[in-house]
Design goal:
Blueprint: E1 7-10, E2 13-14, E3 21-22, E4 36-41, E5 49-54, E6 59-65, E7 68-73, E8 78-83, E9 88-92, E10 97-101, E11 108-113, E12 122-123, H1 126-132
Antiparallel strand pairs: 1-9, 2-3, 4-11, 5-10, 5-12, 6-9, 6-11, 7-8, 7-10
The structure holds thymidine-5'-diphosphate.
Thymidine-5'-diphosphate is lined by residues 36, 38, 40, 49-50, 52, 117.
Length: 133
């Protein structure tokens, strides 16, 4: 898998003077059917989350509030994407190392995934990830 497979998806944005609305729908905005969602919040300043890759899981990461950086690697190259708008979803395919960092106060990271939680699907050691690649 290469970093070129990572995509920043622009989600629908229904502008309204009462407040804006965005949404995700299986196989429409998302290139997969959602099996699980989870969210990360109350991250202390300077901490990071998610230093790992998934063997087969794919996901979309959205900053519902505040901002954070997603650092991605395919084992050869690295890139950093800042998420700070709730109408962008970062599509991360399987076998891409990703770390979430530089969380702002009150940042809320929302992740939609195509599989249930499975520890066996994680690669948590970067050297092991590079070997597997
Ligand atoms: P983990 O995915 O390692 O967190 P992060 O990648 O954000 O650093 O998950 C942390 C813990 O939470 C881990 O012990 C497993 C548990 N967990 C679940 O039980 N279900 C889930 O859907 C997720 C994402 C984590």
């Amino acid at each position: 898998m290469s970093l070129s497979e990572v995509k920043l998806l622009e989600l629908p944005k229904i502008l309204d003077p009462r407040g804006n609305l965005s949404f995700l729908q299986n196989n429409d905005q998302l290139p997969f059917a959602v099996q699980r969602v989870y969210w990360i919040y109350d991250v202390p300043g300077g901490d990071f989350r998610g230093g790992h890759a998934y063997r087969s899981l794919q996901e979309v990461i959205i900053s519902l509030s505040g901002s954070f950086d997603v650092v991605l690697s395919d084992g050869y190259e690295e890139k950093k994407i800042t998420l700070n708008r709730s109408y962008y979803g970062l599509y991360v395919p399987k076998m891409i190392w990703r770390q979430l960092e530089n969380f702002s106060t009150n940042a809320l990271a929302f992740i939609a995934a195509d599989q249930p939680y499975s520890e066996q699907d994680y690669i948590r050691d970067f050297e092991a990830f590079k070997q597997t690649v």
